[in-house]
UniProtKB/TrEMBL annotation:
InterPro entries: AAA+_ATPase, ABC_transporter-like_ATP-bd, MetN_ABC_transporter-like, P-loop_NTPase. One of its GO terms (molecular function) is lyase activity. It is a peripheral membrane protein. The lineage of its organism: Bacteria, Bacillati, Bacillota, Bacilli, Bacillales. This is Phosphonate C-P lyase system protein PhnL. Keywords: ATP-binding, Cell membrane, Lyase, Membrane, Nucleotide-binding, Transport. Pfam families: ABC_tran. PROSITE patterns: ABC_TRANSPORTER_2. SUPFAM superfamilies: P-loop containing nucleoside triphosphate hydrolases. SMART domains: AAA.
């Protein structure tokens, strides 16, 4: 398998049983990402963009097609057929996901959240503490918040923490679902700096963006999505 990720003829629909309807979210999606590629997806809300990322991450099961991922541990693996154990391993060690929403344990502090991500990757306590403080500082989260519970954070602070937790692991494949939504310009630029750093280190990325200006000079290829299908923008 030459590419890190190959999506072939991906289709996904949802049944609304109470209305007796079947909604097609995406249809006939093909994407190939080599190692170190950054592919961007744009399109209106509801066009099916997030469905693709959730299928790759194993949150949604696809009805048709395949998602081949060249895992460091398992070799070529069709995510559509992966076991729960395999997906848990991939999420911990190889595939990162940044969404607009932060789902955390209610009694876990911001510092603990980021440190847990690093310790899962095999970092020792001393290095995990150092890297945690570096990335929280990079995103200018007030040190007074580091040992607080994220439930008390503003929307922008939660999003910055979510990005920090995913990026600190330097995953092989990073899925970005509107990573700059609700961030101010300065915070967006800090996300961009880290994306550029990860690109230099060889991380492969697939991202969804509304902010087209943010994507300038970042993406190798850009797809526009309309009604669940792709057009290649450039």
């Amino acid at each position: 398998m030459e590419n890190l990720l190959e999506i072939r003829e991906l289709s996904k629909s949802f049944s609304l049983h109470n209305l007796g309807k079947n909604i097609h979210a995406v249809s006939g999606i093909d994407i190939r990402l080599g190692e170190g590629d950054f592919v961007g997806i744009t399109g209106k809300s509801g066009s099916g963009k997030s469905t693709i990322l959730k299928c790759i991450y194993g949150t949604y099961r696809l009805q048709h097609g395949s998602i081949w991922y060249n895992s460091k541990k398992f070799g070529p693996l069709n995510i559509a057929e992966a076991t729960n154990r395999q997906m848990i391993y991939l999420r911990k060690h190889e595939i990162g996901y940044v969404s607009q929403f932060l789902n955390v344990m209610p009694r876990t502090t911001a510092r603990q959240l980021v440190m847990q991500a690093l310790i899962e990757m095999g970092r020792d306590q001393v290095h995990a503490e150092k890297e945690t403080e570096q990335i929280l500082s990079h995103f200018e989260l007030d040190p007074e918040l580091w040992d607080s519970y994220p439930a008390t954070f503003s929307g922008g602070e939660k999003l910055r923490l979510n990005i920090a937790r995913a990026m600190v692991k330097k995953p092989r494949l990073l899925l970005l679902d509107e990573p700059t939504a609700s961030l101010d310009y300065e915070s967006k630029m800090k996300v961009k700096v880290l994306i550029e750093q990860l690109m230099q280190e060889g991380t492969t990325m697939l991202g969804i963006f509304h902010d087209l200006e943010f994507m300038n000079n970042l993406c190798d290829r850009e797809y526009n999505m309309q009604n669940g299908v792709f057009t290649l923008s450039h």
